[in-house]
Design a protein that fits this description.
The chain is an alpha+beta fold and 345 residues long. It contains eight helices and 19 strands.
């Protein structure tokens, strides 16, 4: 009898510990953005792997980790396989996580591409072995890209280490390649990344994205455990659904968030900052700036003071404007390699 009650007591303690841990995690972790106009701001990672290719995580591990890290939408992109999708979709539905069918493929000894949003009848062909010329042993890259489009999919240029060439340009001209990774967490300082703005990434991809009208993405390419503050693609979706996310990427409504910086088109960044940072004037003429989002923002007051300040996630700070209006240059919000976003409050 004592053993029976002791077992029940241990079970109750275990449950209470789980509940307490979950509550504590929920209190210390916030990931939500305010709505931007009619758009939901969703946190996405569209490039990752599981044991179905060369990853060390199971599909369940990957989905649960994604939820814990605050992602709203993911695509598991194993090399040449969409095998993980059904299990990931089922688990994602239970956790409120949007899952998009995808896989990684690309050119023979060349570019890597992430395929997203293909239907259930799509079968990857010659993964990572697409031919540059018709008549070679494997599938011609133009036929492969057309097949992706035929099945409703789009392509993202992953870690653009090879530089820009005719295959990627052709895919862009056909409207099949619609995005490029500015940041890939896994490649680190390798794979022809450049050291710029305090980190290793692909700064040339910013110019390419603007020239070819590509969505800007930041992805983890996770094979093992992701770091605590991983790369994130912010997606501005009309609805919280797979279709809503894909429509947003096709429309280029994305911002790349990595290493404490936001990178995107000026108009979209302006809309995000307008929704995320609110200013209230105090009776003595100062301004209280409130951050309604999870991004740690670095600001510089323009004018005589040149004061630099840190606006913490979901925090606030008081600024003494040098004039009737306050002009702030946001030092970690970029719409070009040399252009920070500036706003007047």
């Amino acid at each position: 009898m004592i053993r029976k009650y002791y077992s029940r007591f241990v079970c109750i303690l275990a449950v209470l510990a789980i509940v307490a841990g979950t509550a504590a995690f929920g209190q210390s972790q916030r990931f939500d953005f305010p709505k931007v106009g009619n758009y939901y701001v969703l946190r996405g990672d569209f490039h990752m792997h599981t044991i179905n290719s060369d990853g060390s995580f199971t599909t369940r591990d990957r989905v649960e980790e994604s939820k814990e890290l605050g992602y709203d939408v993911i695509a598991i992109t194993d090399h040449g396989r969409t095998r993980a999708y059904r299990v990931a979709k089922y688990l994602g539905d239970q956790l409120g996580l949007i899952v998009i069918r995808g896989h990684e493929t690309g050119m023979n000894k060349g570019e890597h591409y992430v395929v997203l949003g293909v239907d259930s009848t799509y079968t990857p062909i010659d993964s990572h072995r697409w031919a540059r010329n018709r008549g070679e042993e494997t599938i011609f890259y133009q036929d492969a890209m057309k097949d992706v489009a035929k099945h409703g999919g789009i392509i993202i240029w992953a870690h653009p280490h090879t530089g820009l060439n005719e295959c990627t340009i052709w895919g862009a001209e056909q409207g099949i390649i619609v995005g490029v990774e500015l940041k890939n967490d896994v490649v680190g300082e390798g794979w022809n990344t450049e050291k710029s703005h305090g980190t290793s990434w692909y700064p040339s991809a910013v110019d390419w994205a603007l020239k070819y009208n590509w969505a800007m993405l930041a992805c983890t390419d996770a094979h093992g455990k992701r770091k605590q503050n991983p790369a994130v693609t912010l997606v501005f979706a009309k609805e919280r659904s797979e279709q809503g996310v894909l429509e947003a990427i096709r429309a280029r409504r994305t911002i790349a968030w990595f290493d404490g910086m936001l990178w995107g088109r000026k108009e979209l960044l302006s809309e995000l900052m307008s929704a995320m940072v609110k200013a209230e004037r105090t009776p003595n003429g100062k301004l209280v700036l409130k951050n309604l989002g999870p991004v740690d923002l670095d600001g510089e007051v323009q004018g005589a003071t040149g004061k630099v300040f840190d606006l913490k996630p979901y925090g606030e700070t008081v600024v003494d404007p040098p004039d009737k209006t306050l002009t702030i240059r946001w030092l970690n919000v970029w719409y070009g390699l040399k252009e920070n976003l500036t706003r007047v409050y």
